[in-house]
Amino acid sequence: MYTEGRSGPPPSGGVAGRSGRALPRQYTHRRVGGKMSEDAARGRDRQQVRAETARFDDPRELGRLLPPGLRIGLAQSAFQTEGSLEAGGRGRSVWDDFALRRGTIAEEATPEFATDFVLRWREDLALLVDLGVDELRLSISWTRLQPDGRGPIDRGGLGFYDRLLDELAGVGLRIALTLQHRDTPSALSGGWMNRDTAFRFGDVAFEIGSRLGDRVADWITLDQPSTVFLEGYALKNQAPGAGRLFSALPALHHQLLGHAVAVEALRSADLAGRIGLVDAQAVVEPASESERDGAWAALADVLQNRVVADAVLTGVYPSGPEELPPFLAPLAGVDPVDLARISAPLDFYGVAPLAPQRIAAGRDPALPTGPGAPPALPFHARPWPELDRTGDGSPFAPWAPVAVLRSLVERYSDALPPLVLTELGASYPDLPDRQGAIVDTERIRWLGAHLGALAEAVHEGLPLEAVQLWTLVDAFEWQHGYTRPHGLVALDSRSRDRVPKASFDWLRRVLDERS
């Protein structure tokens, strides 16, 4: 299934692929730029990947390999952790509404409690200190500050974040704060389909910056606008579940306009911290050497990897492959003034790495058809049978995050600010042993392989400043509910007690070994 985050477009008429057929030029550039498909993915099977990465299981070896200047942190989001959805006058978000619809969340799970972070954040703070990470990325719940997405700031909601940031700063944690992590206020009619939402976002950004800005090192305006557009507005997989396919492109543009307005608001608040955004990136390649799969993979690449980055870093939206219908035509008529604002310089660029994608033409055959069937994109992802898989079926590919970062460096060159890798993590089923301990060996193997590959790339000159792992405590994983645990710490489903896994102790030892 084609999962979170994709982007795509490109012109055609390119160089010949290995079959001799012409592939779209920008697609071939993508493959070479990331050094991933030819020299990493193809020709490497699960045994070779394991042999090349097994040494990173050793916390001493990995810790000593980590570059001294590379920050290691953790990431989380408000809606996925906070709980207390009715407390203090908090308003409803699009995710509150989406989670109430029958069949939208795995096992009909509810985010009502999540990890209970609002009530138990001091326990998590103690865990962070014990772990020894450098920084924490967290987000603000917009509706906890402005229940209706506009108007005065709620004093109770502000007080919660004020105390939280004070305590985080007090123990020496570097703070990265996301202003909008997918939970847009329900009261804002149309959500991101409405241009006015961008300006309401700018208003709350100024208020947050003015009141909390003295403790925040890195400001992230938006989390993964490409994912919000694709999963929530084009499809119905995530909130708000609009299912408008490419007619939802205004929701993408208005998010980026909101980013621009928020950057302007934060700059006017005279902050000391840096400003950036986070978007999703993935290795994308065709499932076969056919021209048809190549063209659709090129579109997937633009949607996943270029539509946001091109606009933010170059001030131009990309176009789609000439062989395909003009899916992205609505972006061609965007006001150049908007794009000038969207492409204002940033201090860093955040990348949320997604699983690598092998793209084939046509609707996903696993999806239902006929009356009432959900909308689907005209392409879908195929499996990587030669590689191991994580608990959610994603390929075990430690070369992939390095590949997408190198591709960004090659494509955008001097226009690209320093990089931060966010939300690096994997889902595996966690089964306690007879003593109740969770020995998550597969997660340790996954984290070691990926951190080792990134550390080696930084030593080779990759301009990566930080890696933020997803996440501390098993959280509410959007439409998957609690079925895809990613945390270093398990959560008792009834008591909400925290139970550190073996991966928690492993990472603590890795960080202790740093030079």
Automatic annotation (TrEMBL):
What keywords are assigned to this protein? Glycosidase, Hydrolase
Regions of biased composition (Basic and acidic residues) lie at: 36-53
**Gene Ontology molecular function terms on file:** beta-glucosidase activity
Q: Which GO terms describe its cellular component?
A: cytosol
Region Disordered: what ranges?
1-53
Q: Known Gene3D superfamilies for this protein?
A: Glycosidases
Q: Which BP terms does GO give this entry? A: carbohydrate catabolic process
Return the InterPro entries for the record.
Answer: GH, Glyco_hydro_1
- Which superkingdom? Bacteria
- Does this UniProt record's set of keywords contain Hydrolase? yes
Q: Which family does it belong to?
A: Belongs to the glycosyl hydrolase 1 family.
Protein name (database record)? Beta-glucosidase
